[in-house]
Amino acid sequence: MSVINVTKMWSTTSGTFNAENFSLYSAKYSITEAWQVLCEIGDGITVPLTAVGIPSIGEQHPSGVFAYAKIFTPKPIGPTLWVVTVVYEGVPDPSYNSEAYAVDVEWSDVTSTEPIDRDFNGRAIVTANGEKVEGLTMEIADQTCVIRRRFNYINTYAISAYRHSTNSDTFLGWPPGTARLVGFSAKSQFFFGAPQGGWDVTARIQFRAPLAGATAAQAWYKRWTHEGYYVKIGNDVRRATDAQSVDTAKPVLLKSDGTLETNVNTPLFKYTQIYGSLPYSDLGLV
């Protein structure tokens, strides 16, 4: 058992100010950081928690503020990758400005034109002779959420994997598979080669509801009709022929086992995954 690599993903600051009965006030200052820990297959939860680079419980934040490591949340992402979230909590100093660390969330719509092969009820769009109708499109409206917040630290390389993934968890009320990070920008001012005052991050998440016949997990899958120029006959795979026993000039519908599908009203649609799956809550955006 050993740790191969530890990478800091991001760091954010937040706080709460409560008033009970308008007479008793309390304030809490917290810093949340996320780390990617690459381990060996079979390593248990204690390996990423005790990895060199991961703070120890009760350890003061390295910036020197009065916040101490209190909450540790290790989460396995795959057989070797873990994300460890560490929360430092303490009392804010007089210079703490809660407004600088507010989270701005804005919802809007975005539309795109996509080719379609099914009608609203999920039936194949074909002619009276069973030929597939091509060239039909549909305007799809997706919801987009733009999130703006301030980070103390970010690692764009560690976050880059999310550009090719959908959410594996429920994110902003949307089920797994429906959200995709389509934009991520960060702005800071550099003095003498070092960023000053953290990073102003803007992330754009696009949410897609599944079309007819697909599940939420398949919302961003590519759908295609199971058809081709070859069919399975017995144990052989042969070129498909038309009614005159001539090699067909158009692909024919296929069943799941590769044999000919003669019912044009029940074509087999397949879904191909093109994006990975990662927990979007670990991005620290909300």
In words, what does this structure look like?
With 286 residues, the chain is mainly β. The longest helix has 4 residues, at 46-49. A hairpin with a 3-residue loop joins strand 1 and strand 2 (24-39). The protein contains two helices and 16 strands. Residues 21-25 have low confidence and may be disordered. Strands 1, 2, 3, 4, 5, 6, 8 and 9 form an eight-stranded antiparallel sheet that branches. It has a two-stranded parallel sheet with strand order 7-16. It has helices at residues 46-49, 156-159, and strands at residues 3-20, 24-39, 67-76, 81-90, 104-115, 137-154, 165-167, 179-191, 194-207, 222-225, 227-228, 230-233, 236-239, 252-253, 269-272, 276-278. The protein is elongated. It folds into three domains: 3-100, no CATH class; 103-217, no CATH class; 222-272, no CATH class.
Summarize the structure.
This protein is mainly β and 286 residues long.
Please write the string of helix (H) and strand (E) elements: EEHEEEEHEEEEEEEEEE
- Poorly predicted tracts of residues: 21-25
What oligomerization state is this entry in? single chain
Helical coverage, percent range:
under 10%
Q: What portion of residues belong to β-strands?
A: over 45%
Q: Please, what is the average pLDDT?
A: 86
Radius of gyration: 26 Å
How many E strands? Answer: 16
What is the tally of helical segments?
2
Gap between N and C termini: 34 Å
The largest pleated sheet is described as:
8 strands, antiparallel
SS content category: mainly beta
- The overall number of domains is 3
Shape call:
elongated
